[in-house]
Amino acid sequence: MNGRPISGASVGARTRRGKGALALALGTLMLVVTACGGGGDSDSGSGSGKGGDKDSGQADTKVSQAVVTVAPKDGADGVKTSGALKVTAAKGKLTEVEVEDTKGNPVEGKITDGGTTWTPATHLAASTKYKVHAVAKDSEGREAAEESAFTTLTPKNTFVGIFTPEDGSKVGVGMSFSVNFTRGITHPEDVEKAIDIKTEPAVDVEGHWFGNDRLDFRPEKYWKPGTKVTVKLNLDGVEGRPGVYGEQAKTVKFTIGRSQVSTVDVKTKKMTVKRDGKVIKTIPVTTGKPGYETWNGQMVITERLRVTRMNGETVGYGGEYDIKDVPDAMRLTTSGTFIHGNYWGGDAFGNYNASHGCIGLRDQRGGGDRGAPAAWFFDRSIVGDVVVVKNSNDRVVAPDNGLNGWNMSWEKWKA
After folding, report:
1. Which candidate in 123, 208, 340, 356 is catalytic?
2. Could you tell me if 101 and 128 are in contact, meaning their C-beta atoms sit under 8 angstroms apart?
3. Which of 193, 335, 375, 412 has the fewest CB atoms in 10 Å of its CB?
4. Which intervals of the chain are annotated as region Disordered (predicted)?
């Protein structure tokens, strides 16, 4: 689209007519004076008139040589949310580009290529009308402007991200921000770019993909207590895979609470609970018996159940156990590892390992005794707290088995 000049040519036309009339009047007067006086240069009057007319035309009639072009064209519909919007300038440089939707939300962008190109910094939302206003100047400083409006496509196939933790929650220092997508993602860089995380105080937070449908974010080390985290899921309009677009625009905020890291020593059968670096309690435990050893490694509490039922069939152990009214249970892995109250273990706590891989603490059936070790621990734990298991004969828990990415080095996490 050709740029429209800011100054109008009609003003210059009126100016020329005015000056032409004045020059004609002066010329007539000078002819009269010459006839009476009998002398003077006959070319001086006409030369003065021509000079004034020429100067006026240069000052007022030249339009800007700059040409502003907006793609997509004005009135376009079904526009792609990425790669379609571009503003360029020929014979000049862009000085101003404003893009916003009908609600006044701006689209950030950057002028590049020596002032000749503007592109958006991110994708556009789907099913949204945008307005563009752009201005460029030529080498003489004269402005040309262009305006345009278009509407983005309405996708037939969409995806969303199911995330944890919840908005407004207070969590432990081991909590990762985890997003599980409802469709497999084949454009991971575009999706990850659409998730913005800011922290107070500031800390470097990096994302890591587990497969093509899960993306976790964490800092290098456990969060500092009191950190405030704000996550913007700007997924609306992101093409996660060919023809499949995000439909989610949401801000999630959560706060890191006090630090609680508990260490289970399988050999000593004891758990040491540390709050803000200080030991507050040591609790006798029982862990996985031979053949059912508990995972080693750093595990994060992701779910808290005041009372539940544990059935071996749900974790691949057939009919080996089916226990009702299990109290004070907290999930550590997706595969079924819990730290929980145990009312059937007899004298196992602190003496021998008797479980199918879980960490058991003495408790009352249904958790009625809030002074029991498991109840005490449950009441002082929150989602995101860390439980570390050491000296087990089993391997280290997989980083994607729960929110246990802390078992991966920072270098591998970023890679």
Report:
1. 340
2. yes
3. 412
4. 40-62
SS3 137: strand
67-151 under CATH 2.60.40.3780, yes or no: yes
Q: What's the pLDDT score for residue 27?
A: 40
For residue range 144-196, list pLDDT tens digits in order: 999 999 999 999 999 999 999 999 999 999 999 999 999 999 999 999 999 99
Alpha helices in 241-332 (DSSP H): none
Question: Choosing from 123, 208, 356, 358, which is the catalytic residue?
Answer: 358
| 320, 356 contact by CB (below 8 A) | yes
Give which of 124, 141, 121, 131 is closest to 63, Cα–Cα: 141
201 preceded by a cis bond (ω within 30 of 0)? yes
Q: What class is the 260-414 domain?
A: mainly beta
DSSP per-residue codes, 204-266: -EEEEEETTTEEEEEESSPPPTT-EEEEEEE-TT-EEETTEEE--EEEEEEEE---EEEEEET
Contact between 235 and 249 (Cβ < 8 Å): yes
In this structure, the number of other CB atoms found within 10 A of the CB of residue 230 comes to: 13
pLDDT greater than 50 at residue 19: no
CA distance 61 to 149: 30
Active site residue 36: no
Is 42 within 8 Å of 179 (Cβ atoms)? no
- The per-residue pLDDT of the chain, averaged, comes to 88
Instruction: Verify whether residue 123 is a known catalytic residue.
Output: no
Per residue in 379-393, pLDDT (tens digit) is: 999 999 999 999 999
Domain ranges of the chain: 4-60, 67-151, 158-256, 260-414
Name the nearest CA neighbour of 338 among 291, 367, 399, 295: 295
Using DSSP's 3-state secondary structure scheme, residue 327 falls into strand
Tell me, yes or no, if the two domains 67-151 and 260-414 fold the same way.
no
pLDDT bin (cut points 50, 70, 90) of residue 61 is low
Alpha helices in 38-80 (DSSP H): 44-60
At residue 277, the pLDDT reads: 97
Strand partners, 98: 133
Q: Which two structure tokens, joined as six digits, stand for 341?
A: 């109250």
